[in-house]
Amino acid sequence: MSAEPVSIKARPCPLCGKSAVHDFRPFCSRGCRDRDLNGWFDEDYRIPVPPGADEGDDPEGTP
Ligand SMILES: [Zn+2]
């Protein structure tokens, strides 16, 4: 008796959990893949700037 699931090779989409499609691995569709890419870009562009970072070193401020 082999109780191994057949879907062991097909990983589910990390975003929605649906079975992934070969063309969009590891996602289930282009929508999920794009959403993941957008998420990455979002995090990339979100650079936290500590308050007061612009002050202190100001080469143009001192003549
Ligand atoms: Zn999905």
Residue runs with pLDDT of under 50 for 5 or more positions: none
> Which structural class best describes the helix and strand composition?
mainly alpha
Choose one word for the global shape.
Answer: rod-shaped
Q: Find the count of extended strands (DSSP E, 2+ residues).
A: 0
The SSE string, one letter per element, is H
Largest sheet data: none
Question: Could you walk me through the main structural features you see in this protein, from its secondary elements to its overall organization?
Answer:
- By secondary structure, the protein is mainly α.
- 25% of the residues lie in helices and 0% in strands.
- The protein has one helix spanning 30-45.
- The chain is rod-shaped and about 80 Å long.
- The structure holds zinc ion.
- The site of zinc ion has 8 residues, from loops.
Identify the notable features of this structure and list them briefly.
rod-shaped; mainly alpha; binds zinc ion; 0% strand; 63 residues
Summarize the structure.
The chain is mainly alpha-helical. The chain is built from one helix and no strands.
Describe the secondary structure blueprint for this structure:
Elements: H1 30-45
